[in-house]
């Protein structure tokens, strides 16, 4: 992305746009718009979505699958509102380390099974289990670093503190 905008003043697509290059490292993106920067900054400051955690995320809370018949939401909602997990999922649960058994077409767990503890680093096995049970505990948000304005032809760094 930085190369396309220009890494030096001589290569720059527009005046001073090469100054954005130092902000384009890591997991970043570019947004092109003709809207007022203040509106865009406010929008992204207020944007927050809950999503499924990925490996390397810190667990936001404990999650334990209760003993007994394994339900699709793993005890997250009242039993009367939940449904048994499909028997076809049982081999995958075992592959992921959950000590289940199949009894009369129902997935059974003899003891409670702790998937994760609050504050612990999640691995790919845990995140897969959380997703299977519909447990979303990662917060998605966008942090603006800087913008270039065609009106001023300057790069402005965004204050993320306030």
Keywords:
single chain; 19% strand; three-stranded antiparallel sheet; 162 residues; elongated; alpha+beta; Ribosomal_uL10-like_sf; 9 strands; 4 helices; Large ribosomal subunit protein uL10-like insertion domain-containing protein; Ribosomal_uL10-like_insert; two-stranded antiparallel ribbon; Molybdopterin biosynthesis moea protein, domain 2
Q: What is the topology?
A:
Elements: H1 2-5, H2 37-46, E1 49-51, E2 63-65, E3 68-69, H3 90-95, E4 100-103, E5 106-109, E6 113-116, H4 124-132, E7 138-140, E8 146-149, E9 154-157
Antiparallel strand pairs: 1-7, 2-6, 3-5, 4-5, 8-9
Descriptive overview:
It is elongated, with a radius of gyration of 23 Å. It has helices at 2-5, 37-46, 90-95, 124-132; strands at 49-51, 63-65, 68-69, 100-103, 106-109, 113-116, 138-140, 146-149, 154-157. It folds into 2 domains: 2-47 and 141-157, no CATH class; 63-119, Molybdopterin biosynthesis moea protein, domain 2 (Alpha-Beta Complex), CATH 3.90.105.20. The two termini are 28 Å apart. With 162 residues, it is an alpha+beta fold. This is Large ribosomal subunit protein uL10-like insertion domain-containing protein.
Q: What is the 3D shape? A: elongated
Round the mean pLDDT to the nearest integer and report it: 90
Alpha-beta classification: alpha+beta
- What gyration radius follows from the Cα positions, in whole Å? 23 Å
- Please provide the count of β strands: 9
> Number of domains in the coordinates?
2
Secondary-structure element pattern, one letter each: HHEEEHEEEHEEE
Stretches with pLDDT under 50, minimum 5 residues: none
Helix content class: 10-25%
What is the count of DSSP helices, taking H or I runs of 4+ residues? 4
Tell me about the largest β-sheet. Answer: 3 strands, antiparallel
**Strand order within the widest beta sheet:** 3-5-4
Q: What fraction strand? A: 15-25%
Termini gap: 28 Å
GO molecular function, one term: RNA binding
GO cellular component, one term: preribosome, large subunit precursor
Pfam family, one: RL10P_insert
Domain Large ribosomal subunit protein uL10-like insertion: 53-135
